[in-house]
Queue: 3 jobs
Job 1
Amino acid sequence: MNKHTSGIQMRQRAETMQRIQNAAERVFADFGYVGASFSRIAAVADLPKSNVVYYFETKEKLYRVVVEDIFNVWRAAADALYPDNDPMTALGDYIETKLELARTRPYGSKVWANEIIQRAPIVQDYLEGELRRWTNDRIAVIDGWIAEGRMRPISARH
């Protein structure tokens, strides 16, 4: 196998995995975690069920990948929340990006909302670890802006 063939296979693998993730996002949004199945996801992705099993092994692994991807896209939206940035501009950009993501990835928004409404039965460890640290960093930025008098006092946690 030469580099060209290897590159094509890697690209096809990435495309197949993305196709499965996109289908899974929709199925998890429409049927919830319990109602979703590899069969439904495969049907939406127009792939054999064996492909879904091969790439993700379990429904929980696939669900975690979907939820983490949604969060990472949203987290990127909050990248403008740094101490040196103007609070009004940074928060305005963040809100605008979040609204755009709700329009362009409605299934992702629904998956995330359903997980939170159900008290995060699948990704609780993620929420208590990485997400909590990330949120606390953003809260510190907002609290810093407040301490500097750059914005009115609010509860940054809410």
Job 2
Amino acid sequence: MKVKLSTKEEELMGILWRVQRSSLKEIVELLPEPQPAMTTVATMLKRLIDKKAIAYDKEGKSRIYYPLIKQEEYSSHSLHQMIDHVFQGSTARFASFFTRRMGLSDKELRELRDIIDEQLDQE
């Protein structure tokens, strides 16, 4: 997957991932205040169509938009790119940074340790 999205495009994708299918009007209503103009959102949706991130079905006079890419696939790809560029491809450097700099609670750290232990047990 080579889809690169802007922050605003990711925001629209987040809405579509959450609701799965939505009209332009509904998408605008789900955006936080101050909501952009419908024409602005329509332009961003057109860009997402051009990037093959979303598609639409016609229902009467309306277009009902839906995601073509899965959130998990996009998130995984984006995270791998960030690790490659920011942490020179080192997952260990990323994990070290994440656990030391993100202000994780003891509970969150234990949850991460449990996830790692589960992965190790599966191998």
Job 3
Amino acid sequence: MSRRTPAAGSPASGGALDAPGTGYPGGVRIDKWLWAARFFKTRGLAQEAIEAGHVLLGGDKVKMSRTLRVGDQLSIRAGGYVRVVRIEGLSEQRGPAPVAQKLYEETAESIRDRVEEQARRAMQAEPADAIERGRPTKRDRRLIQRLRYAD
């Protein structure tokens, strides 16, 4: 019986996910990297975002098979926000969140714009707050029925 050894750079191997310039000389597919960096919960969601044009590499739309390299700059629109990140490391394996955050660095402008957008949204009124009462309960419905069809 042969034992599989952990992939170089995987959390199981005890190392960082990828030191720049090691482990992935040809690069990593963009959909795998977005999933490994935890921008999307599944590779399928990452692929849908790429196809929809929500992921830009250097300002241009990309295909799923596009390989990423350390130093590339991505613009990712997800969750109502746009994040501009510079790739610091490569990985095809999804690891813990603290390790995944080391794969990229968000630009200062992106952080500032995201914080401003969050503040702007917090200041807007929530439409659901205007509704005093929601859907009638079973008891309310029966009362309405009695009043509506009372002889």
